[in-house]
Amino acid sequence: MCGIVGYIGKQNAYPILIKGLHRLEYRGYDSSGVALLNGQNKLNVYKAKGRVSDLEESCATKDTLGTVGIAHTRWATHGEPNNVNAHPHYSQSENLALIHNGIIENYAVLKAGLINEGYTFQSETDTEVLIQLIEYVKVSNNVDLYTAVQLALKQVIGAYAIAIIENANPDLIIAARKSSPLAVGIGKDEFFLASDASPIIEYTNKVVYLEDEEIAIIQRDEPLKIVNLNNHEKTPQITKLEMNLSALEKGGYEHFMLKEIFEQPRTLRDCMRGRINVENNNVTLSGIIDHKAKFQNARRILILACGTSWHAGLIGEYLFEEFCRIPVEVEYSSEFRYRHPVIFPDDIVIAISQSGETADTLAAIELAKEAGAFVYGICNVVGSSIPRNTHSGSYTHVGPEIGVASTKAFTAQVTVLTMMALNIAKERGAISQTRYEQTLSELSNVPAKIKEILELNPLIEDLSKTFTYAHNFIYLGRGYSYPIALEGALKLKEISYIHAEGYPAAEMKHGPIALIDQEMPVVVIATHDSTYEKTISNIQEIKARKGRILAIVNKDDDKVRAMADFIIEIPETEECLAPLLSVIPLQLLSYHIAVKKGRDVDMPRNLAKSVTVE
């Protein structure tokens, strides 16, 4: 959940590191720091609580020269956010400095042993324990830094992506990873290091992604060397990046989140491009076609995800059961791995993650693979851990999503699940040709309909002023709209800090209706679908108790319009595709309420984009 940047070459490292930290700040923004080797036997470490801009301010009068450096932006796990707990951490001799993403689970045992050896600790972090351990191993065994790292990591239990520099060796960075992402960019006579490709793409499109328990020896004027913990050397596999640098900028929008909401007509077209051929009435996903027999003979589908991706999975459950007639279970990855799940070899496991690095989902994937299930990944980041650890899969192709609250990644995940359901249903002979063609045609029209909804942005912005007073919200939906109620509530609480809950509308009378009064805004998704009349009954129950209703309706609606206090109209579509439309006004509503309340929309408190720890 933290961001790592490193540089070694001929340029001054500090500007590159700071720019990289800004690009990675969505991964954590409690504190940040930088360590620089100035070539004069001086290892300088500078740290600051708060944002990267706070670090820049504190470094304005300091010596920031040096062509080797590492930097870090933190999302706190061990120890509160402050200057002492911020990374990088010195070793006791101040000969070494280390940055770390992940959690060292056995840090307490290691720390106790080091205290017995006379080491003292300044911070509350597990990271300081790791750098002290590396120095202890190095000194006591009289070995070089690479060997010390290798020996020390064999004692470590947990997840890590680390980078280390040494005062006595200003031409070297040692990096290593296990269960946390780390990439090495290869330039001309220089190397870059980062948690993801966003800080690297400006300088090179050649990247090597480290695998678990691999160590990178990054040495000036030498080829990149990769060795695992058992000292087996590996030939680096270079990946060519295809990321667009402009995607990392706001492009005139006030926030990344707003930009990403407005990108959705384009990103969904990109998601469908090459997969949907409307003229030939066909949708094809190579990841399914290449493993056709697995899907034709599947006993059950298990969908594993967290957060917003879990909501996409709930929509996937409706789609697969309706179109493919395969039973589906949707699980939180974090719970799945700890409850001794029953997994059959003829199960299909679909793992969904925007980043492709979600720690709980990766652990659940390993559990499913051990049980013999076929695992299919859906993610956005090319070269991330989930694509590398699944049997097959589909990328969403929406480009970098910088805003912590997911928007375009969610709609792309739902789009991929829809294409999967149609593809599998056709292969299994479970869907009529008429229904198949009708749904396929309407799916291709979704981007244009989203563009139409986005034209309501000024209306929704104005409407948001009405709700800034609220301390609680309830979101209601039925059928395909129930996961959207959950997603709408999550977006609001993530970025505005207003408490919000989503419920199936029919469950109101089983408890939540006790909360309804004239101060309680209730958002109801009431589009024309198979449960429309039932939803109207639920609205009447709320109105009888003086609840204030904001309804998402279709354009020709009269019944809900007569009862609701506020309405947002969206185009009509097939019931199974309605989530792709109804979620858009909820994204905009959450965004504008948060802005009106003065929240930091792109970097909400306590959250980070890529959850690489449990």
Topology of helices and strands:
Layout: E1 3-8, H1 13-24, E2 31-37, E3 43-49, H2 52-59, E4 68-74, E5 89-90, E6 96-101, H3 107-116, H4 126-141, H5 145-153, E7 160-166, E8 169-178, E9 183-186, E10 191-194, E11 206-209, E12 214-219, E13 225-228, E14 233-234, E15 238-240, H6 256-262, H7 264-272, E16 276-277, E17 282-283, H8 286-289, H9 292-296, E18 300-305, H10 307-324, E19 328-332, H11 333-336, E20 347-353, H12 359-370, E21 374-379, H13 385-389, E22 392-395, H14 408-428, H15 433-454, H16 457-464, E23 472-477, H17 482-496, E24 499-504, E25 521-525, H18 532-543, E26 548-554, H19 559-563, E27 566-570, H20 578-596
Parallel strand pairs: 18-19, 18-20, 20-21, 21-22, 23-24, 23-25, 25-26, 26-27
Antiparallel strand pairs: 1-4, 1-10, 2-3, 2-4, 5-6, 6-7, 7-8, 8-12, 9-10, 9-11, 11-15, 12-13, 13-14, 16-17
Helix pairs in contact: 3-4, 4-5, 7-14, 7-15, 10-14, 10-17, 14-15, 15-20, 16-20, 17-20
Describe the structure in your own words.
- This protein is an alpha/beta fold and 614 residues long.
- The chain folds into 3 domains: 3-243, Aminohydrolase, N-terminal nucleophile (Ntn) domain (Glutamine Phosphoribosylpyrophosphate, subunit 1, domain 1), CATH 3.60.20; 248-453, Rossmann fold (3-Layer(aba) Sandwich), CATH 3.40.50; 456-603, Rossmann fold, CATH 3.40.50.
- The protein is 36% helix and 23% strand.
- The protein is built from 20 helices and 27 strands.
- Strands 3-2-4-1-10-9-11-15 form an 8-stranded antiparallel β-sheet, with helices on one face. A 7-stranded antiparallel β-sheet has the order 5-6-7-8-12-13-14, with helices on one face. A 5-stranded parallel β-sheet has the order 19-18-20-21-22, sandwiched between helices.
- α19 links the parallel β26 and β27.
- α7 packs parallel to α14 (408-428), α10 packs parallel to α14 (408-428) and α10 (307-324) packs antiparallel against α17 (482-496).
- The longest helix has 22 residues, at 433-454.
- The protein is globular, with a radius of gyration of 26 Å.
- The termini are close together.
- The mean pLDDT is 90.
